[in-house]
Amino acid sequence: MLTLTPDAAEAVRAIAAASPEVPDDSGLRIRRREADAGLELKMVEDPEVDDQVVEEEGARVFVDAELAPDLDDKVLDAAVVGDRVQFTLTEQA
Fold first, then answer.
1. Cα–Cα distance between 56 and 43 in angstroms, integer?
2. Residue 27 sits in a domain of what CATH number?
3. Is the pLDDT of residue 82 over 90?
4. For a 10 Å CB count at each end of the chain, is N or C smaller?
């Protein structure tokens, strides 16, 4: 199952708190973009029915059911770059 670094959990919590269109207990949803092979990350109120839900350190991440097997051995990390948050995926140790 996807895991989060403390920095990623902090970033997800901060984005949720700063997003007025969604409640504070919302989550970051990760899914494949339809147009290309990239990933889309978006704050949403609730997971889709089949999403894998990852909850760590007060952060909620919803992984699309079709994508979840590809992220089972990954770690989501985050870093602040300028005024934006950059998320990265790496292999679990």
1. 16
2. 2.60.300.12
3. no
4. C
Q: Tens of pLDDT along 13-64?
A: 998 888 888 887 799 999 999 877 789 999 999 999 999 999 999 999 999 9
Residue 28 domain boundaries? 3-91
Burial state string for 2-35 with b = 16 or more CB within 10 A and e = fewer than 16: bbbbeebbbbbbebbeeeeebeeebbbbbbeeee
Q: In the sheet that 59-63 helps form, which strands lie side by side, from edge to edge?
A: 39-44, 27-32, 59-63, 52-56
- Residue 34 has what DSSP assignment? S
Question: Number of folded domains in the chain?
Answer: 1
